[in-house]
Model the fold of this input.
Amino acid sequence: MKRKMISFLGPTRYETCEYYLGDVVAKPTEYIQKAIVDIYRNEGIKIDEIHMLLTPEAKNNNWLGDEKLYDQLQEYVNEDKLTIKIHDISSKQEINTIWNLFEIIINSIEKEDRIVFDITHSFRFQPMLALLSLHFARITKNILVDGIFYGVYDPKSAEKKFPIIDLTSFVELQDWITNVYAFIKTGRVESLSDWLNEKSKSIQKVERQNAVDAKQVEKLAKSWSELVGSLQTNRSPQLPEVAEEAINSIENIKSEMLRPIFNPLNELLSNVEQEIKPLVDNDPIFSGIAAIEWCYNHGLYQQSYTLADELVITAICIVQNWDVKEYSYRKRANDIINEAIKITQRPKEHANFLNHEDHELIKELLQYKELLKIINKIKDNRNDINHAGWRKNPLKYDKLEKHFNESFKDYKQHLLKFYKSNLGK
Done:
């Protein structure tokens, strides 16, 4: 793993000045690149390679020649074994130039590198491209961003002493974008939860008792993980409880004064809270429908089919005052559903259903033929999924998704109608 610095060199002539980062002041120099290497050196950290991105104008004006940047870096080449690599780039403002520059930056980075990126003399689109390139490399090459720096050089200033601004927090903003997108689109909370935990723990390690907001964020991440995990593994009976814990965590966060790094939570929280509130319903049918909606909205179709199939069984158990968790009652309810489906399909063959011990309930179910038709399709598709397609004429994935999307609205309508009409009879 190498620590590499990547930097743009501008074409303008610069005056000698002092750059400083925090309390560390670099040796006087015209060049921000040398100042950053010197500041790292003062902190006891060695930069192994420096990759210079040079337009023809920058190379002629500031790279080659007596006391130009290449000459000044020789001190570190000799003493620290610094490796210098140059990359010629175009000064043209064209789309092909942008992609070529992206490729140059990415190809200069190897897996597990630690990257220091200086954008002081980057121009127009280049700072944005630098950030995007780093984000891409973090995902594809597992790099660490040591720092993103901008030297506030002002040629008009009388005092030639300028701060270096640390922009590394932009990386954290990119983490927010990536992790929140994954959470909203797929329902996967692991990366967001892990990132929140990592940040909150690092803050608590430094601040100890003062990191109240970080502790609340850690609790929030834990409650989200438990809720999403329960949804992904179809833990229906536990959903109202874990959903309520997640909402309580959200409310606790809202009452805290968050530090800037956690501020994007505020935008996310209101959306998430509205999504999970219906899960808190104490009625298993309404909570179950909310769980199904959450799952299929996040592309979890296997869970959606399983929940939809089991929810009808739960509804029958409730209207019959049977224990919803007792296996024998759930099997009995499922047998009743299957019998009613068979009757709708072959009424002549099952004309003697009145001899069935639950014939009254079967008779009632037969009033909901559309619901039985949908349930039959849900059961068949669930079986197709759970047996991994090892059956005759298995459906393709898009058909399974399409069937559910097209039938859920009617499923919900007919199930609630049956449930409300028979509850308390």
Remarks:
- The two ends are 71 Å apart (CA to CA).
